[in-house]
Amino acid sequence: MRANTFFFDLHGHSKYSGGTSMEMNLHNLAVGAKQKGLHVLGSGDILHSQWYSEVHSSFQEINPGFYKYEDMYWLLSCEISNVFTEGNHERRIHHVVLFPNFEVVMQVRDVLKSFGELDNDGRPTFTGLSIAEMVEMLIQIDPMIEIIPAHIWTPWYSLFGSKYGFDSIKDCYQDQIKHIHLLETGLSSDPPMNWRLSELDPFYLVSFSDAHSPWPWRIGREATALTLKKPLDEHSYKDLITAFRSGQIALTVEVDPSYGKYHFDGHRSCNVRLDPEETKKFNGKCPQCKRPLTIGVLHRVEQLADRKEHETQPQTARPFKRVLPLAELIRITLNLKSLYAKTVQSYFQTLISAFDNEFEVLFNVSIEDLVKVIHPEIAKAIWFNREGLIRFKPGYDGVYGEPLFPTTDEVNELPEVLKIISARKRGKSKRKSQRSLSDFF
Fold first, then answer.
1. How buried is 323 (Cβ within 10 angstroms: 0-12 exposed, 13-18 middle, 19+ buried)?
2. 254 in the same domain as 330
3. Domain with 56 in it: what CATH number?
4. Which of 232, 259, 286 is the last residue in one of the domains?
5. What is the pLDDT of residues 11-28, one digit of tens each?
6. Parent domain of 418
7. What's the pTM?
8. Number of helices (H) and strands (E), helices first, in the chain?
């Protein structure tokens, strides 16, 4: 990466959001972000009064609207939920909102408090307020408030969600669409899937983690890199938002969409996972219990797309990288179930200690240097990741996808250092049978 390229993860939470870890405090977020290789975090949950107080008392403003805490840079952010009825349709839509400063946050609280309880959850829900009405209200407070449709394909709470979303972005935002500049892809879609809808061409795609815990295998698992002309600490909130709006995006970091929890259709209770064509054969019903399936992101894209796969890239398209988190690679290599296993964390910390942060390991460190400090099987997994050789059993109905490593026979050309090590290993295996991957360690 260039020296003036900086990684942002602006969609996250605190311990005050439902379904999040109690470890989601500012210190842990800063530590996890630095280990990941992030430069700028969104505070998350800033409309919640207790979190607001903690953030306000901790952050140091280095330039207008741009903050620092424990060597991490921050912007003020919050995910919000709108639940409303339009015509005969119930809508449930999530957005990530970025705020220019603490004063604007308080103004937004005053305006939105009549539509929902702000302190029940770090991700507040506003009822009876349409998206277009909300956008207009926020922009009237300050035109530099950035409103980003969140994980736009997720079935339950998103712009295009199969359960409660819209079929068109124009139908959702109406005359306020002029204030929307960015769209968040979410874990279960990637840029090429979004490029299949021509109506999304005017918008820049961003990726953020929506992390519910502060650990590096969650925080920054998706991120967006900006290329900036000045050092990061010379920027203000307005500078950074202008950079996003003008498309100064170097790349987005994406997990493979099949890894996401809603890529395929399915019914978790019955362990049923179906691709869109299979779903059509069963008329959208679970073949086990006959209840409606949760229609996943791939199916929803197929329903709304007006282009074929790989047909074109809009002018707003930017490069992207598909990678799995480092801890996930280590876990699979060791054939362990938990990312929190001591052995996984030991190997993870060895790599971070040697090479500073996870993005450096995933993107830049040579295989030759990796095998000097880590077992070759883990180095091989990192190489598989870089080369896009990992396949997946797709995620469905809230279940993460299952990564599948290729066998050595399926790989055409290993790096030379891995070839040598593999050859040695094959020689040893003739003398001693290999029981499991853990025998390598």
1. buried
2. no
3. 3.20.20.140
4. 259
5. 999 999 999 999 999 999
6. 326-395+402-431
7. 0.93
8. 15, 17
